[in-house]
Specification:
With 242 residues, the chain is mainly α. It folds into two domains: 55 residues, no CATH class; 150 residues, Glutamine synthetase/guanido kinase, catalytic domain (Creatine Kinase, Chain A, domain 2). It has nine helices and five strands; from the N terminus they run αββαβαββαααααα. Strands 3-5-4 form a three-stranded antiparallel β-sheet, with helices on one face. It has a two-stranded antiparallel ribbon with strand order 1-2. Helix 1 crosses helix 2 and helix 4 crosses helix 7. The longest helix has 22 residues. The chain is globular. The relative contact order is 0.15.
């Protein structure tokens, strides 16, 4: 990690902290908050740095969400809502944003957890993973994304969900009655919800949603459908390349 953070500094990637996570060899790295596009750029560049440092040190690094049956990893996308003019957001704006995130979650999980492997994580999916940050008027915790998500698309679908909430003035309590909850426990179910979500499609674009769903259905193959065992197909496809 010393070498990793050294190379991050060379590229101007700011970070706040890193620490050993739940298992031996598992690490958590927290990047400094910035705008959405810069954040996504920094996530991808940091992952590449970690791959390169691992190779230089004759070890392997992976961002598979569940590389073993007893290990799992995530990519948290906590965020804060602000105005360009620095005015304080009103309470309804933050509330409706949160309501939109919860309402669209059964469909947006197809972007936030985009692989079969992501649904093997030990941590159960829960609406509690998306909530207001305690003690903050505009901060939100969003901890459902898997470590193998595309950060550009993950951030985009979160923004889209928030916009849906603002447009429809959704309250978090209203979200609990949305058909499709609880959250899908497989990629196939998540894609089905995505295809049926007119709300997300209206913000992201129907063509983008259709392309994503069609492309990812191709990865749901018989030799990778066993929920109890990680297949060789997954290791070959994801271990070094996700």
């Amino acid at each position: 990690m010393d070498e990793t953070t050294h190379r991050m500094a060379y590229l101007g990637i700011e970070w706040e902290s890193w620490n050993a996570a739940n298992g031996i060899g598992q690490l958590t790295l927290k990047l400094t908050p910035t705008d959405p596009i810069t954040t996504a750029d920094r996530i991808l560049r940091t992952k590449q740095i970690i791959y390169e440092v691992a190779t230089d040190q004759d070890i392997a690094a992976t961002f598979m969400s569940a590389p073993t049956t007893d290990r799992s990893s995530d990519l948290y996308i906590d965020h804060s809502l602000t105005r360009a003019d620095a005015e304080v957001l009103d309470e309804d704006t933050v509330t409706h944003w949160l309501g939109g995130l919860l309402t669209t979650l059964p469909a947006s999980i197809a972007y936030l957890c985009p692989t079969i492997n992501a649904y093997r994580r030990q941590t159960p999916f829960s609406l509690d993973a998306i909530r207001r940050r305690r003690g903050s008027s505009n901060g939100l915790i969003h901890r459902l994304g898997s470590s193998d998500l595309n950060p550009y698309l993950g951030i985009a679908v979160i923004l889209a969900g928030g916009i849906v909430g603002l447009k429809n003035q959704v309250n978090p309590d209203d979200s609990l009655g949305v058909p499709g909850l609880p959250i899908p426990d497989s990629l196939d179910a998540a894609i089905t919800n995505l295809e049926q979500s007119e709300e997300l499609a209206s913000v992201l674009g129907k063509d983008i949603v259709t392309h994503w769903a069609d492309a990812h259905r191709m990865s749901i193959v018989p030799n990778a459908s066993d929920q109890d065992n990680i297949s060789d197909w997954e290791y070959h496809r994801y271990f070094e390349f996700i």
